[in-house]
């Protein structure tokens, strides 16, 4: 039988990252932060000074960039981009915007398909992203789609970034989130949308633990 996969898709700030990592830890499964792959490619492309209109160069960059994760308990995994630890650079809004821009290019997405599927290993995988349930792992046994109001998502990002020492304003974050949502849902290739067989959870006003429990309950019911 295929290696089990639980996909968690949703917009930025929906809590996917925190929830996915916690669920993976509780299940003892591997964890794929697919957004980090897109961020890593965006970062590598900026380091190399690539033209963001040159789709071929960007696709080559996606294929050739060496991206490795080192999981850490209760923390974001360390991410190595071409050998250099880039964890905190990846979390910046600049890397997020670069990721979102290159993620709209079909050849870039195609270049990352196999890299993502390689994470599917025993005992199982929790995959976090935008198209995990629709494109990358369409046969996943459990598919979750997390949402929350844009205001609440902006507030969550605000707290997260403040805690990490970044200078940001709530207004800018909200504007960024609305723009990123529009780009991610409006793009022609692999737009952000729930898979037909996904269970949607609106996390507005829910605690992290309540969401984790809801996802684990789905896993237990289907697993
Ligand atoms: O999830 P995160 O905010 O780290 O993702 C950064 C950007 O990468 C998203 O805005 C989205 O455009 C893109 N992305 C994607 N498909 C994924 C994961 C991320 O298009 N599976």
Automatic annotation (TrEMBL):
Entry's Gene Ontology BP terms: nucleobase-containing small molecule interconversion; pyrimidine nucleotide metabolic process
Its Enzyme Commission number?
2.7.4.25
Leading EC class: transferase
Q: Which residues form the signal peptide?
A: none
Cellular compartments annotated = Cytoplasm
GO terms of molecular function:
ATP binding; CMP kinase activity; dCMP kinase activity
A Pfam family hit: Cytidylate_kin
Keyword list (alphabetical) reads: ATP-binding, Cytoplasm, Kinase, Nucleotide-binding, Transferase
Q: What is its main location?
A: cytoplasm
Gene3D superfamilies per record: P-loop containing nucleotide triphosphate hydrolases
Annotated Gene Ontology cellular component terms: cytosol
NCBIfam families linked: cmk
Q: What is this protein called?
A: Cytidylate kinase
Q: Which organism is it from?
A: Ahniella affigens
Gene from which this protein is expressed: cmk
